[in-house]
Amino acid sequence: MQNSKLRRQKRTRGNIVSTESRPRLSVHRSNKHIAVQIIDDTKGVTLVGMTEKHVEGIKGTKTERAALLGEALAKKAVEKKISTVVFDKGSFRYHGRVRALAEGARKGGLVF
Questions:
Q1: What is the mean pLDDT of residues 83-91?
Q2: Which residue from 63, 89, 96, 102 has the fewest beta carbons nearer than 10 Å?
């Protein structure tokens, strides 16, 4: 199980090229929560990072919470003058909560 997850993650990250002008938006999903970071790989620095716990008044299903998290992350990123990113889903399928987070981030103003 762990080997196949790492292989999927490497395969996804191998196709992603982030630059200083287009940092990487990395998603981590667990059974209960979802976390997201915008990372500048050239410097090795996390520019913006959030989990569901950082968003006030977040309620609903896990998918609805992921969409709200995406919007909140986009708002915070736009404040820091980050408008375009490269989406990194890691070893997770672009489905369900990961997709809802991506659509919420696009709705909030991020371009990828």
A1: 94
A2: 96
